[in-house]
């Protein structure tokens, strides 16, 4: 059995790392294809270095662009590589344009598609990710659903049960494996010492297109964050996604944010650094998918700056709350979540998803 893994962005590198580690430990024929949808050092290379991942066999250099341009370039380039590699199965993870292009290129060449993190649904077609997820699931042969809920979403759409495997989410593997490494790392300890303070801090990430590309929504969120710094004696640490920095500058919101002494805007950081920042935060505010999961796993309360989530398990266990871009809701949620008892159960599995996925594929 010959496998190819296709990845392209920060969360895919992180969430596929447990599968890559698992493949490396076995004598298998496999290759790594990187679309380079993400390419900045701190959105890409840093994760290969910190997670000790092998260099991709193919770097397709696709980069940024409109959805059509980016996905189209990926399709053309991935097809060429797949015709050369001729894998039996292509593995993709998540819901980015890389995932859709990888799955589509493979399925048209009659190569089997394994979709890791299948079955997530926000039921919000305004999100490009929702379109990518639904389409990818419907052309996949092996659907690795993280939870029973995700499996049920797939069943409701008519996908055959024998294609679906509930295996947990590889983010649990990645979090647990790398937190241990991060906690022992002197460089990370030093990083943490420099960034944290005695009063404690909140952690913020923001990058969803529907939030940051919309001036009004972005302004509402920034206003709420600013108000929170006035109410609470806490810093807000904000590793800023390149998309968000670009938009804040375009909308003339960046300078005011930067001049707020309690908001620590930093470049995007490595996974080990980020895990330590998450683990020690009093509260996390985010619109990221992966961060909603990690905060749940690490027992840190989360406020999600979105109107919906494809991770409803986090709402059910009580680790997360949805507030959208409503200023009052965001501010009120801080008090609520700070008082939250951190005794919820992680619904995303036991940290052995990567192993399970490889074993299922090997048995086919
Ligand atoms: C993409 C995914 C999103 C995922 C996110 C993870 C799609 C449609 N979106 O969003 O689902 O949550 O990755 O972070 O696939 N840029 C850089 N350097 C980079 C990458 C991007 O500067 O390495 C800037 C460019 O200005 C680019 C913009 O960020 O135009 C957006 O990048 P893009 O890959 O299109 O989307 P993301 O917002 O990163
Ligand atoms: N992350 C990171 N450094 C950062 C911000 C996030 O390593 O500065 C990690 C985070 O731990 C999570 C992943 O990136 O595993 C989430 O990626 P992102 O929020 O970009 O995408 P999403 O999960 O929303 O698709």
Automatic annotation (TrEMBL):
Iron-sulfur listed as a keyword: no
Keywords: Isomerase
Its EC number(s): 5.1.3.14
InterPro entries registered for this protein in UniProt: UDP_GlcNAc_Epimerase_2_dom, WecB-like
KW Isomerase (keyword) present: yes
Pfam families the UniProt entry points to: Epimerase_2 (PF02350)
Record SUPFAM superfamilies: UDP-Glycosyltransferase/glycogen phosphorylase
Highest taxon of the lineage: Archaea
Domain UDP-N-acetylglucosamine 2-epimerase: 23-361
GO molecular function: UDP-N-acetylglucosamine 2-epimerase activity
Protein name, entry field: UDP-N-acetylglucosamine 2-epimerase
Source organism of the structure: Methanotorris igneus (strain DSM 5666 / JCM 11834 / Kol 5)
